[in-house]
Amino acid sequence: MMLFGTRDALALPPLTRASRARALLGFLLVAMLAFASVAHSQAIQPLPFKNHAEKVRFQHLTRQLRCLVCQNETIADSNADLARDLRLDVFQQMQQGRSDKQIKQYLVARYSDFVLYDPPLQADTLLLWFGPLLILLAGAAVVIMAIRRRSRDAGTTVQAPAGQAPTDSEDDW
Amino acid sequence: MSRLLPLIGFMLLVGLFGFGIWWNTQHDQNEVPSPLINKPAPAFVLPRLDDPTQTVSKASLLGKPYLLNVFASWCFACGEEHPTLMAEGSQLGVMLLGYDYKDAPDDAKNWLREHGNPYRMVVADRPGRTAIDFGVYGAPESFLIDAKGVIRYKHIGPITPEVITKELKPAVAALRKESP
Question: pLDDT of B41-55, one tens digit each?
């Protein structure tokens, strides 16, 4: 509550604040609309899908493929030139009746497994897939060992002689 | 000893993060190693930039090694690379083949007129379709292709004098050793 109190004290008088907020809101709305229309006009893909199922399949497939220019975007999301080329390529291969697997293999042959958002499970990715599990298990082992030792220690310290002055224990830090 | 454990753990983490920082200064995180190294280059037929009625194909280039250099007039890093190609391109020991990527022909011609033309020949791939077969994802990229049409080496990003002495020249020398 203290925090809100200080913020109110520092803020502008109510009237100015409200009108400012309105102006800002208006500006934001206009800016958002402008950007939305730009984004929208860029996103339009004149890909002639035969039916809805084909479109869904296309979107599903392109969302699993990485754009290599802006590497944290899928080729479905990216506005990069290469992503547009790859979308067209995927679409054309779909028209030729190639399966999702074949299309993925085609891209992997050219751009390596990196083009797939889901790394395949194979010998050299075992550590990638199961490394976190190993670390979790190792952590669990450490925790279990610590708990066991502590409960054993607790059992012995209860019987410690009462006259001894408490020494600097490890818990202090 | 058990008092020291947190310190040891902390030092190990410092070591690990330090190694990570060092590693990232040595390696480009955006670089995607090509799966096409030591595989036959994709077959291509592309028009020449200076005369689109003539085409150049992979088959027509067999018999001699060449360095295929992907460039474009819109590509900023290509301008950084260009002086190096102008100065050292003729001393590489292989033919320098320009690959104009997704470019307007007039822009490319003007660019070469302005900056100089280090290439023996330039092919144009305006739609960028053949570049996908090569696994190109940007410019500049360079492929060393041997006399049998096999991709032997790829460099992503601008070629610098350092890249030439450390990577390109040894790769060309290896080709020489095989077929003098």
Answer: 999 999 999 999 999
